[in-house]
Amino acid sequence: MRKQISSGSVWESQIGYVRAVKVENRVYVSGTTAVGDDGNVVGENNAYQQTQFIYQKIENALIQAGATRNHIVRSRIYLTCMEDWQEVGKAQSEFFADTLNPHLPKFTPACTMVEVSKLIRPDLIVEIEVEAVILDY
Length: 137
Known about the structure:
Layout: E1 2-5, H1 10-15, E2 20-23, E3 26-32, H2 47-64, E4 72-79, H3 85-97, E5 110-115, E6 126-133
Parallel strand pairs: 4-5
Antiparallel strand pairs: 1-2, 2-3, 3-6, 4-6
C-alpha cells in the first residue's frame, strides 16, 4: 500500500512531488529545506538553524506516516558550503540523541554529506532527505 504525505508547500504542486511517500514499512522523505509555511527561510545564512528546522519538518512528515526519528536509517545532506559541515553535523547529532523513548538505544542513520553548487534558492544552504524503515523494537 502507498500513502502520500503532503506538507502543503507551494513547490509540491509546481514541481509535482510530495513531502514523503510511505510504501509498506518504508518512508521516503523528499529533499527538505528550511522554508517555513510563510515562504520565508528560517535561519538565513545559519546552517545550524536551518538543519534544526529541516529535521523538525522531516519529523512532522514521519509522524504523519506513522514513523519516528528512531526509524530513520539513512540521511543525505546537501550543503552549498562544506565549511558548514560541523554546524550541520552538530544539529543532526542533537536530533538523533534526543530519542523519543529514553529506554531504547540511540538510533543513528547511515549518512552522506556532499557539497553542491547551489540549491533552489540562494538563501538556502542545507537540504536533507531521509529514508525510514518502521520496525517494532
